[in-house]
Structures are given as structure tokens and as C-alpha cells.
Design a protein that fits this description.
- A hairpin with a 5-residue loop joins β1 and β2.
- The chain has a two-stranded antiparallel sheet.
- It has a domain at 175-223.
- It is an all-alpha fold.
- Helix content is 77%, strand content 1%.
- It contains 21 helices and two strands.
- It is globular, with a radius of gyration of 27 Å.
- Keywords: Cell membrane, Membrane, Transmembrane, Transmembrane helix, Transport.
- It comes from uncultured Microbacterium sp.
- Residues 102-501 form the ABC transmembrane type-1 domain.
Length: 511
């Protein structure tokens, strides 16, 4: 494998060299870095022009300038990058501008990518298992609509309904009876369609979902939850138990009682630690503390799984670790919501859900305030990026799984008497993920390269905005800084996709 990776990296370096030369040359020829100074009315205009020409070596032909830039870029191999200066950013080093923009974009696309992958694959699997049902037709129709909508239109709709009107609702949260009944009706139809079965089973599912969701909406309205949101220990326990049942059903099947019991034990551990954690969160509100606790959550799940696993220690430990992570994540959400009221008092009167920027300027507060503020600014652009990706992943997952389900080895697995969950999860889905792995890998690299339209609409200063600024101002160094990041990421994720092939299909060898 090492030989294969080194060979691929060697070939990729040649591709990056040729591509960077073309991009640098075309950008240098097609833009004028002196345009803003030529239109200036300053008395020392010529002096400023001469200074920029000298600083950027504009009197040197673009081809020769490229090799000067390449010399500085090659120092990245020894972790001493020199990508020049960005005159459009007050002569800021390009490496600093790219680092700031990349961190902002990664913050934006991480949640969007995770949500899109999980939701898209889940919906795609469900539609494949309910092929030609009403649920399948409805999801197919909706995914085509979402996929065809331009991203700027989705962003505008989200600003109107997800921010302006929702903020108006939060200012005076009153849930009407009709809203409760409508929410229950929609939930009932969705769950009935997803679970399927006989008409008797579907009616029971519909009634259960209708009562549960309508009752939940009534409870939230009566307790004024939207004005003072919280999870509490009861919410943590309920969420943890639901996660234990759901993750166990997918990972090992509910017939594996050891996995279910291990997951429930993990939930009980976090419920017992709920109150002591509140003191820890209050006295040590630091990011490194949260990272350590997330690692501890995974370790707790693994240890409990190994102790309870019996012959299937690996599967039980994996299940318990996932449930432990989810339960602790809910505890963190509960702690963030405790500062909700104080947060409202410190932000402008525009509402909780922000429509522009990545943070509230001059917001003073500890880590919990920053987390809540980050979520308030992330929610709309994250949904905008996720929706289109979810629609795409849904279609890919559905078609890929349907193709695999008709293979001989799937019929053989069923003939051996394996449960449907085992056939789907362990046999069919693993092979169905092979073509999807390529799409996901390239999408992640493309998203980190910057979502130009989304970042522009939501005034998010990320890689997309950096690239647009470089092109508009003729700042070649800034454009090349963008190219270095996106080009390297494209190479890395392309290599990861190839390595995933061998992990998903043992018949594929990396050689």
C-alpha cells in the first residue's frame, strides 16, 4: 500500500505543477493588479503604482514570476510556506489569509457535510427498501425539486422563513391547536410510509406518531419551552434510551441483548454524571475540556462494550461507544441552552437566528456563549448547503443499493436464513457504498474549496469569498493560495476514495 500511495503522490505532484502553472499564467494575463490604482485620484498615484510593481515584481514576465512563486510554495514541504503577500488585503501574507478563510469554511461545511451524508444515505436506503411505494415516489419528487432549485433561491427562502419569520415566532411563541394537529398529521404520514407493513400496522404507526408528536408540541407550548429551551436530565435519559434502541437496531439488531444492555448502561452512567458535569462545565469552560470529555465518552462506551460483549465484543463496543458519544453530546447541548436567555439580552434585536456573518461582533461571554452564537450563525448556511447534497446523496444511495440488491450474493445471504437487517447492513450496503465513496470524497474537497454563492449571500468570509476577491482585484498570489488548498485537498480526498474501495470491498487490492 505504501508503494501505491507514494506512486500516486508522485503522479499527483506533476498534475499540480502543470495545473498551477496554467492557473498562474492565465490569472496574470487576464487580470490587472494595478486597476484600482490607475483609477485613483491620489496625488501620489504614480508612486503607489511603482511601489506595487516593485513589490509584486510585475515588471517580470508572468512565466518567470511563476517560478519565483513556486520557489516559495515549495517551502511548504518543510513547513515554511511563502505564498507571497495579498495586496488586496493590506499586504497580509497569503498563508495567513488562507488559514483564516480555510478555518472559517471548514467550520461552515463540516456540519453540512456530516448532516448531508447521514441524512442522504439514510433516506436513500429507506426509499430503496420501499421501492415504488408512495414514500418512494414522494421522496423522489421532492429530491428532484430540491436538486433543481438554485442555491441562492434556497438561501433567500431560508432567510425569510428560517430567520425572519421564525425569529418573529420566538419573540412570542404561541403554538395553536391547528399547528399541533398538522405536525402530528405530517409525522404520522412520514412514519407510516417509512415503516410500511400491513394496513393494520400502518394505522397503528400513524396513530402512535400522531399522538406522540401532537402531544410533544402541546407539552412544549404549555411549558413555554421555546422561550426558555432546555433538555434537562429527563431529556438526556429519553434521548439516550432512544439512541440506544436505534443504534443497536442498526448496528447489531435488537436481538443482540448484550449490545442493548451495554448501551443502556452507558446512558445510566451519563445520567448519574449529569449533575457533577454541571459543576465541571461551570468552573472549566474551555474547549480542550470538551475535547477530552468526548474522548472519555468514547472510551466509556468501548470499556462497557468490552465488559458486556461476550463473543461479540467488537460489535457491542462499537454500539456502546456511539451511544455514549450521542448521550454526552446531548448533555453539552443542554449546557449550551442554559445561557439562551442571557444570550438574547446581549445580541441585537434582529433575532436568535442570524442571517449574515459567522459571529456576533463584540460579543463578550464564555465558551457556552460562543458555541450558541456560532450555532445561531451556522444554522442557515448549513441547511442551505445540506439540502442540495442530501437530495443528491439520496438519489445515489437509492440507485446504488437497488443495483446491489439484485446481485446473486444478496440472494444467497437471504437463502442462508440471515435476517433482513444483516443482509442489508453487512452485505448489500457495504458494496453499495463503493460508488458513493467517490462522490462523498470529491464533494468534501469541493466544499472546503468554498461555497462561493452561499458564502456571499450569508456574508461568510471563507475560501469562496477569498477566491472572488483575488479574481476581482487581480491578486494572483491570493488566487494561487486558494488553488494550493483546493488542489491539495482534491488530491488527498481522491486518494482517500481509492483507499476506501479496498476497505469496503476485500476483492479490491491496493497495488
Amino acid at each position: 500500500m505504501l508503494t501505491y500511495i507514494l506512486r500516486r503522490l508522485g503522479a499527483t505532484i506533476l498534475v499540480l505543477l502543470v495545473a498551477s502553472f496554467i492557473v498562474y499564467t492565465l490569472t496574470s494575463i487576464g487580470t490587472d493588479p494595478l486597476a484600482d490604482l490607475k483609477q485613483s485620484n491620489a496625488s501620489n498615484r504614480q508612486e503607489l503604482i511603482d511601489n506595487r510593481i516593485e513589490k509584486l515584481s510585475l515588471d517580470v514576465p508572468p512565466v518567470l514570476r511563476y517560478f519565483t512563486w513556486l520557489g516559495g510554495a515549495s517551502r511548504c514541504l518543510i513547513l515554511q510556506c511563502d505564498l507571497g503577500i495579498a495586496f488586496s488585503r493590506s499586504d497580509q501574507p497569503v498563508i495567513n489569509a488562507v488559514s483564516t478563510a480555510a478555518s472559517s469554511t471548514i467550520q461552515l461545511v463540516t456540519a453540512a457535510t456530516i448532516i448531508a451524508i447521514i441524512a442522504g444515505l439514510t433516506i436513500g436506503i429507506l426509499t430503496a427498501l420501499r421501492q415504488y411505494s408512495g414514500f418512494d415516489y414522494t421522496v423522489t419528487f421532492m429530491t428532484f425539486i430540491v436538486y433543481s432549485l438554485p442555491i441562492f433561491w434556497i438561501a433567500v427562502l431560508l432567510k425569510e422563513f428560517g430567520a425572519i419569520r421564525f425569529n418573529a415566532f420566538l419573540s412570542d411563541p404561541q403554538i395553536s391547536v391547528w399547528a399541533m394537529l398538522l405536525a402530528g398529521l405530517v409525522a404520522g404520514i412520514i412514519f407510516m410510509s417509512v415503516l410500511g407493513g400491513s394496513w393494520r400496522t400502518r394505522l397503528i404507526t400513524f396513530a402512535s406518531a400522531f399522538v406522540a408528536v401532537a402531544g410533544l408540541m402541546a407539552f412544549l407550548g404549555l411549558t413555554d419551552w421555546f422561550a426558555k429551551p432546555t433538555v434537562g436530565i429527563i431529556g438526556v435519559i429519553l434521548t439516550g434510551v432512544a439512541a440506544a434502541v436505534g443504534v443497536t437496531a442498526i448496528s447489531t439488531g435488537l436481538a443482540n441483548r448484550r449490545a442493548l444492555y451495554a448501551s443502556l448502561i452507558v446512558v445510566a452512567i451519563w445520567a448519574a454524571l449529569y449533575q457533577p458535569l454541571q459543576y465541571l462545565f461551570f468552573y472549566v469552560p474551555q474547549g480542550w475540556m470538551l475535547l477530552i470529555m468526548y474522548v472519555v465518552a468514547i472510551i466509556v462506551g468501548v470499556v462497557v462494550g468490552l465488559l458486556m460483549g461476550g463473543d461479540g465484543k467488537k460489535e457491542v463496543a462499537r454500539t456502546a461507544a456511539i451511544v455514549s458519544f450521542i448521550t454526552f453530546f446531548v448533555i453539552v447541548i443542554d449546557r449550551v441552552l442554559l445561557v439562551y436567555s442571557d444570550y438574547l439580552d446581549r445580541i441585537p434585536q434582529s433575532g436568535v437566528i442570524a442571517t449574515i456573518g459567522s459571529q456576533t461582533p463584540n460579543l463578550n461571554g464564555d465558551m457556552w456563549f460562543q458555541l450558541l452564537d456560532g450555532f445561531a450563525h451556522l444554522v442557515l448556511p448549513t441547511i442551505a448547503l445540506s439540502l442540495v447534497s442530501i437530495a443528491a446523496y439520496t438519489r445515489y444511495a437509492r440507485s446504488s443499493l437497488l443495483e446491489v440488491m439484485n446481485q446473486d450474493y444478496v440472494r444467497t445471504a437471504r437463502a442462508k436464513g440471515l435476517t433482513e437487517r444483516t443482509v442489508i447492513v453487512r452485505h448489500a450496503m457495504r458494496n453499495a457504498l463503493i460508488p458513493i465513496a467517490t462522490i462523498v470524497a470529491f464533494d468534501i474537497g469541493a466544499l472546503i474549496g468554498g461555497a462561493v454563492i452561499t458564502e456571499t449571500i450569508f456574508a461568510w468570509k471563507g475560501m469562496g469569498a477569498l477566491f472572488v476577491t483575488g479574481l476581482e482585484r487581480g491578486d494572483v498570489n491570493l488566487v494561487m493560495g486558494f488553488f494550493v488548498v483546493t488542489g491539495v485537498l482534491a488530491v488527498i480526498f481522491n486518494l482517500i476514495a481509492d483507499l476506501l474501495y479496498s476497505a469496503l470491498d476485500p476483492r479490491i487490492r491496493v497495488s
